UniProtKB/TrEMBL annotation:
GO terms, molecular function: polyphosphate:AMP phosphotransferase activity
Pfam family membership, one: PPK2
Residue ranges annotated for the Polyphosphate kinase-2-related domain, each copy included: 11-233, 272-495
Gene3D superfamilies reported in the protein's UniProt record: P-loop containing nucleotide triphosphate hydrolases (3.40.50.300)
Name used for this protein in its record: Polyphosphate:AMP phosphotransferase
GO BP field: polyphosphate metabolic process
Organism: endosymbiont of Escarpia spicata
Amino acid sequence: MFEATKVGRKVTKEDYKAEEPDLRTELLRVQREIRKTNTSVVIIVAGVEGAGKGGVVNRLNEWLDPRNVQTFAFWDQTDEEQARPRYWRFWRTLAPKGDISILFGGWYLAPIEHRFRDRCDDAQLDAELNRIADFERMLTEDGTLILKFWFHLPETVQKQRLKSLSRDDKSRWKMLPKKARFSQQYRHFEKVAERVIRHTDTGATPWYMIEATDKRYRDLTVGRTLLEAMKSRLETPQPLCIPATSHAPTLPNQASAQITLLDQVDLSKTKKRDLYKSELKKLQAEANELTWKAYQKKRSCVLVFEGVDAGGKGGAIRRLTSAVDARLYRTIPIAAPTDEEKAHHYLWRFWRHLPRAGRMTIFDRSWYGRVLVERVEGFASDPEWQRAYSEINQFEQQMSENGIIVMKFWLHISADEQLARFEARKATPYKQHKITDEDWRNREKWEEYKLAVNEMVIRTSTEFAPWHLIPGNDKKYARVTVLRTIVERLRAELKSDDKASGYIPCGPLKV
């Protein structure tokens, strides 16, 4: 694989000086055009030690308008990053639409290092590379242009280069501990890198192999490759990909053949007031105790509350938060995305709110808006919401693998009960802010939403993040049921930790 990076390509000083001005001018022009589009650019810079990756990045920042370029290196994990799923740190670096992110190593650095040092086997590495391929596909389908550059040197050239760098006090390579250096086992590193590149070299996100022996050749090749990729994207605004298709079957026309999961929810269930008060008090006390225990064990929780308008989400959330110490949780109300959020992948705004180890985040509405309101109201195209099921399952699986306890609630009421609550809100001054024209419009699409919820539950209720359909016609019953479900899940998870003598996160690759 790396033979083509050892043939001795080079550019003379005179030719470099002649070509550089035109390349810089064209790069700036195309960068300005990219700024006007919905395309974000992610450049991954990887390769062998001593290949001049830092020099390339500095050159790109010199040639491009640096106001719209952000550069990130992933040398060490911060405390914040260690307390969250691995990809949290990468989601935070993704450029908004129109901008460019340059990532040293990116999401490839840790897998390569772990396999190089035998912290994982080939099967575990391949599982992580599958996740990377899915992650990159998700970004490209959303309009991100990903360029992956691998810089390579012959072993003899690398030794000479590193000997020179070892004399430079400003060299990052010199600052690394010897045990962190890959160059000591050149052949082994090549073998690992070849497996990684081969596994993740796709039509949408190919690897560009760059011979780095001659820095003028290296820099011009990267600049021209970036230029052509951005020009190609301007000519074809979205990457060509196979549209997603819905897996929902086409049902017969008879009403009995179109019953949904929501039709099976028993809305007649009620809870007597005196029993409700006693159960609520007991459950809240236990919730308080369990959330503190989860904090001590560094087990985070993510709670998702969805449901029809006026379904009782707010009341259920308040009964929970009144029991939990305010220092342990955050409630995130989700409304229409802001301009900043629209400039990123739709999951970006949820990734950044994931809790630290031991804390709880409560989402009042969530990422499921993509397959509910955005689907029904036409805010997302068919391919966008159809591929979202898989994206959401991967998102929740990564949370679970990191030890986050994910609980999802759909609070359901009948259409008649919703109408009664709407009328009550309209008649009560301090509740009038809860009712909007949009709420009334959504009632007209009751059946469409019901079908969307049915498919959502079928395709995203998983072993690690199951859906709980809560009957909500009786508010007291719904609130107690939600709280009991939370308590029982926390109790089971923490008891499991005790049996295991300490929780160890699982997953394709733990970094």
